[in-house]
Amino acid sequence: MPPTITIPLGCSWPKVGKKLIMTRRLVAAVLICVASSTLVAETPAFISNAVDAKGVRHSASEYHGKKPQWVIDAIHVVRPDYPLWDQRRGYQGLGVFRVRIDPTTGAAGDVTIVRSTGHTDLDRKSLLAFKQWRWKPGTWSQVDVPVVFVASGLVYFPSEADPFSNR
């Protein structure tokens, strides 16, 4: 019976084993970077489009990487839930949700999908969260909220539109 040579993690050839492990790690890191950068690269076009209470439209280009006023004026924000089941399935994606706001109360009213995350569960969780948001009364009538779900379990907003930073 000829000897079987295996070179997984318990390799008896240290240099070969280390090279294989490092190669696997490098490939995994590259794949993660590509997947993440694809999602992040798509977000700027959707960040912070909004209509204030006077009907004036505001676009992402006005803020030049700074936090938009609609984020500053948000007084109650809820991060969308990312169920473990969806994380294990590898569900991820970028979504944009339009929140219509009652100018007199600042409460979120109708929330619609501008761009789906690509997964019904993630869209539903986002809709439920954004319906709970509140803004200073009399400031905004509509905002487009971008959100990114990453399969590692992270739910985040692009840095300029992150209502959770500095709170």
Structure in words:
The chain has 167 residues and is an alpha+beta fold. The chain has one domain: TonB (TolA/TonB C-terminal domain, 2-Layer Sandwich), CATH 3.30.2420.10. Helices cover 29% and strands 25% of the residues. It is built from four helices and eight strands, in the order H-E-E-H-E-H-E-E-H-E-E-E. The chain has helices at 14-42, 69-72, 84-88, 120-130; strands at residues 50-52, 57-58, 74-76, 93-101, 108-115, 134-135, 140-150, 154-156. The strands form two sheets. Strands 1, 2, 4, 5, 7 and 8 form a six-stranded antiparallel sheet that branches. The protein has a two-stranded antiparallel sheet with strand order 3-6. The N and C termini lie far apart (67 Å). 26% of the residues are buried.
Keywords:
six-stranded antiparallel sheet; 167 residues; elongated; two-stranded antiparallel ribbon; alpha+beta; 29% helix; TolA/TonB C-terminal domain
Outline of the structure:
With 167 residues, the chain is an alpha+beta fold. The chain is 29% helix and 25% strand.
From the spread of the alpha carbons, the general shape counts as elongated
Note poorly predicted spans: 33-46
Count of discrete domains:
1
Structural class: alpha+beta
Number of strands: 8
Q: Characterize the biggest β-sheet.
A: 6 strands, antiparallel
What is the CATH-assigned architecture?
2-Layer Sandwich
Helix fraction by DSSP (H/I, runs of at least 4): 25-40%
Distance between the termini: 67 Å
Radius of gyration: 22 Å
CATH class: Alpha Beta
State the helix count: 4
Mean pLDDT, to the nearest integer, reads: 77
> What is the CATH T-level topology?
TolA/TonB C-terminal domain
Question: What is the element string, with H for helices and E for strands?
Answer: HEEHEHEEHEEE
The CATH fourth-level homologous superfamily: TonB
The fraction of residues in strands falls at 15-25%
